[in-house]
Design goal:
Helices cover 27% and strands 26% of the residues.
């Protein structure tokens, strides 16, 4: 059994960014545990890799812009290749969603980076697209994120800063003593003790927290993505298109074909997140309706990823409202690749007792994700006690 000052559970973008940020701020004794063979193997590696900053939330807009700034201009030693391919991003909305998109754009102000465009301009940007819409925005500095390079940068930098990263290391429970989390129990039965523990386990974070007595509620949701077979007429430099309304979707070029998502979502058990066979028809119908030139294309790959949400879609970053020495970096709800760097920085500053900015501390407080009937950690029948002699060794 080895002990750590700070134990990070989960090697997706949230956990990797937190470990990296901690080392950048001078923290020692940081250990990250990931159950898969490599970091970023689950949600972080199964998303559409889209850089988009506009949302309906003021705090999320600002947070996303900070993330975009990092992606465009990371530290000089972070990555040998660019993290963003600036193909541009087009947001469109039909009559049912145009008002909301306009209001989000207006609320974001001049820093949004977007400009309204008409049908003629959209045809220039994406000639193959057939789409009825009422409002459209063009974001020339957005586009596609190089997820592999981003994750490699976090991992490489964290190791260089002294963090220990262990893969094939599955956490089954948090260890709790007198209402304070003091480490974790591994699938092997081994215990790892820590002064502070960070739940950054994505879709699995909520269940781990609840078993220990936390009142936080997180909801994993499944979303399907596909990539079509190669299409000679598809320009690989086309922008990302993201449509809002009664039949939403997003799409971008990928591997000679088109990556397409119909924005489906379903609450799912993260241990049983398999592809729904019925989704083939939904994807094929929606893709061919708006990109008829690809109607005869086949499916090269199809997979299901997960996005995890806190209550009211708020991020969950900071100390647990009940369990002492437990911190959260979770509920990023599909924004993880864009917001990973600022989320890790905010979490690290909270862990180290540094100024993290009152705005984001309040907006993303884990207390907002607490259930309607919080219960005391001391009353939970699933608490796992640390032996006093072990705790005294920290």
């Amino acid at each position: 059994m080895s002990d750590s000052s700070i134990l990070v559970i989960g090697g997706g973008v949230a956990g990797a960014a937190t470990a990296w940020s901690l080392t950048q701020l001078g923290a020692e004794g940081v250990t990250l545990l990931e159950r898969e063979r490599t970091l970023g193997a689950q949600s972080s590696g199964l998303n559409a890799a889209i850089l988009r900053t506009l949302s309906s939330s003021r705090a999320l807009n600002e947070f996303s812009r900070r993330g975009a700034d990092f992606l465009h201009s990371p530290p000089t030693d972070f990555s040998p290749v660019p993290l963003v391919h600036t193909t541009g991003l087009v947001l469109t909305a039909d009559a049912s969603a145009s008002r909301e998109l306009k209001e989000s754009f207006q609320a974001a102000g001049p820093d949004s980076g977007g400009v309204p465009i008409d049908r003629e301009r959209l045809r220039e940007l994406f000639p193959a697209l057939e789409l009825e819409f009422e409002f459209a925005l063009w974001f020339p500095r957005e586009g596609r994120i190089d997820i592999a390079a981003l994750m490699a940068g976090f991992e490489r930098g964290a190791r260089r800063g002294g963090a220990t990263i262990e893969t094939h290391c599955s956490v089954t429970d948090l260890l709790v003593e007198n209402g304070s989390v003091c480490g974790v129990r591994l699938e092997s039965g081994e215990r790892r003790l820590a002064e502070k523990t960070v739940l950054a386990a994505g879709a699995w974070a909520g269940a781990l927290g609840r078993r220990a007595g936390s009142p936080l509620e997180l909801e994993p949701r499944r979303r399907h993505l596909m990539v079509t077979t190669r299409a000679a007429e598809l320009d690989p430099g086309l922008p990302v298109i993201w449509h809002h309304g009664r039949e939403p979707f997003y799409a971008r070029p990928e591997s000679g074909g088109l990556l397409f998502c119909a924005c489906d979502e379903q609450v799912v058990d993260p241990d049983h997140c398999s592809v729904d066979p019925k989704v083939h028809e939904l994807l094929a119908d929606r893709a061919s309706a708006h990109l008829p030139s690809l109607a005869q294309a086949g499916i090269s790959s199809l997979w299901a990823g997960m996005r995890t949400f806190g209550r009211d879609h708020h991020f969950v970053i900071g100390p647990d409202p009940i369990l002492r020495d437990l911190y959260w970096v979770a509920g990023l709800g599909g924004h993880g690749m864009v917001c990973g760097a600022p989320a890790g920085d905010l979490a690290a500053r909270e862990l180290l007792g540094m100024d993290s900015g009152a705005l984001f501390r309040e907006d993303f407080s884990p207390s907002k994700a607490a259930g309607t009937s919080p219960f005391s950690a001391a009353d939970s029948s699933t608490l796992h006690e640390c032996a006093a002699e072990d705790r005294n060794r920290l």
